[in-house]
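Late entry, evening session. Most of the bench is empty. Finally got around to the prediction I had been postponing all week. Sequence below, unchanged from the version circulated by S.P.
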Amino acid sequence: MAASLLPALSLSLQFGRFKGVERHRAALPRHSVTRWIRHALDIDGEITVRIVDAEEGQRLNREFRGKDYATNVLTFDYARGPVVMADLVLCAPVVAREAKENRKTLAAHYAHLLVHGTLHAQGWDHETSEADADEMEAYEIEILAGLGIRSPYGR
C-alpha cells in the first residue's frame, strides 16, 4: 500500500524512565512506529504509544483488567470513529523477554505488538472466540508481511 493511501496518524510516542530505556528508544524510531501503526489503521488515528517499566505495566493491568502481572501490550480505546483514538501501553521488560524467547529482534516484536494493539483499538478481539482469534492472527500476519516482517506465529 502506498504511504499516501494510508490513513493519517497523529502520534505521541512516550518513554517512561527505566533502566535500559535507550535500547527501547533505538528499537522504536518515530518513523517506524508511525509506519507500523498506519498500516494497521483502517481510518485516521490519534494514538499515544507509551513504553513503560514492569511496575507501571503491572499497575495498569491490575487497575484496568484485574490481572496482577505486567503484560506486553495494553490497549485503551476511546473512539473508533470518525477517528481512532487510543493509548497503547507496552511494557519494555516483557517485550524484551518475549523477543528473546521467540528469537525475534526487539523492533520486530514491537512492530507486531503495535499492530496487535492498533487492531484492538479498532474493535478486533482475539478473546471472544477461536474464530475471532484466527481471523485477527491472519490479519496481523498479512499486515506484518506487507511491512517485511515474518509471521510472529511461526507460520
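Two things to note before I forget:
Helices lie at 21-27, 30-40, 54-65, 92-101, 106-121, 130-146.
DSSP finds six helices and four strands in the chain.
Will write this up properly tomorrow.
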